[in-house]
Design goal:
By secondary structure, this protein is α/β, with parallel strands linked by helices. Helix content is 28%, strand content 26%. The strands form three sheets. Strands 5, 6, 7, 8, 9, 10, 11, 12 and 13 form a nine-stranded mixed β-sheet that branches. Strands 1-2 form a two-stranded antiparallel ribbon. Strands 3-4 form a two-stranded antiparallel ribbon. The N and C termini lie far apart (137 Å).
Length: 302
């Protein structure tokens, strides 16, 4: 029985095959062929070597997208315009352009007084203004008596039978007004809507309004019973009624929100209103609670 001796170059150790077991002897594959036949190998790196090799590169990549605080540009303060009421300007510094301002308070708390005063001041500056009226509550005669130039005022009336329809029209009209631009002031009058209806406006809508009015000369006002825009408003003013005056009876003290409504034989002459600054984004420090008091007199009272 013959045998065949094959020696491998790897170990130099001969292998003996019997003729019965091996029919033919194949030549050894080359180095390239062996490499192709082997399964793919995973590269293994030690943690120390990887950190030492790539630490500087990754650190530079992370820091490339971070701006040091010392190089951050200071955001310029918005331009402030008069609200039409001297005491209010002393409290807030005015109304900021390119920002959302909320004016909230219960009924007969001076919301309309402040709105008409702001519109009068804006139209006297030669600016065009828009009022989106959710409840069709604006009185043109009262606006003229307050000094509003109606030729510069766009009145969008959204009075519908249901608050939901009125709210839908108000949001749609506001989107169109903000998109068109060119207004010195846009006021959203939500004061006569029930709070549960007004709170259906999502915060994303207020955020979109804030971004739309940003970097524009427009003053965006929201007249409400309660604050509903959250952190999207740059200025939040809370109004309240403290005194009521009627002809022949002087000024009566009020207890909280309870007051005596004048009868048909009494003539309302004056409202004494308190205003509280709740939030102001223009301040570099937290706002301390501050209040002012101003009076709103009727035209016939002089």
């Amino acid at each position: 029985m013959s045998s065949t001796v094959v020696s491998t170059s790897a170990h130099g150790r001969p292998f003996v095959f019997e003729d019965e077991d091996v029919a033919e002897v194949c030549t050894l594959p080359s180095g390239a062929e062996v490499a192709e036949a082997r399964p793919p190998q995973r590269a293994v790196f030690s943690a120390g070597a990887y950190a030492g090799t790539h630490a500087g590169t990754h650190k530079d990549a992370r820091l490339a997208g971070v701006t040091p605080a010392s190089r951050l540009a200071v955001r310029p303060a918005p331009e402030m315009v008069s609200s039409g009421i001297v005491a209010m300007d002393a409290l807030t510094g005015g109304l900021p352009r390119g920002c959302l301002t909320e004016i909230c308070g219960p009924a007969s708390s001076g919301r309309t007084t402040l709105l008409l005063a702001a519109l009068a001041a804006a139209t006297r500056r030669g600016e065009c203004c828009a009022v989106v009226d959710a409840s069709d509550a604006l009185d043109p005669q009262s606006a003229v008596a307050a000094g509003v130039e109606l030729s510069r005022l766009l009145w969008v009336r959204c009075g519908e039978n249901s608050p939901e329809k009125s709210l839908e029209q108000l949001l749609r009209a506001t989107d169109l007004l903000l998109e068109s631009g060119g207004f010195g002031m846009i006021a959203l009058d939500l004061g006569d809507l029930p709070p549960q209806a007004a709170r259906r406006i999502p915060l994303t809508t207020w955020f979109r309004y804030r971004r739309a009015v940003e970097h524009t000369p427009t003053v965006l006002l929201a007249i409400e019973r309660q604050s509903i825009a959250g952190s999207c408003s740059s200025l939040l003013i809370k109004l309240g009624l403290i005194k009521l005056g009627s002809q022949g009876h002087g000024i009566k003290k009020l207890a909280d929100s309870q007051f005596t409504v004048p009868t048909h034989a009494q003539l309302l002459t004056e409202l004494e209103i308190t205003a509280e600054l709740v939030r102001s984004r223009q301040e570099r420090r937290p706002v301390c609670s501050a209040e002012i008091t101003f009076a709103s007199r009727t035209a016939w009272a002089g």
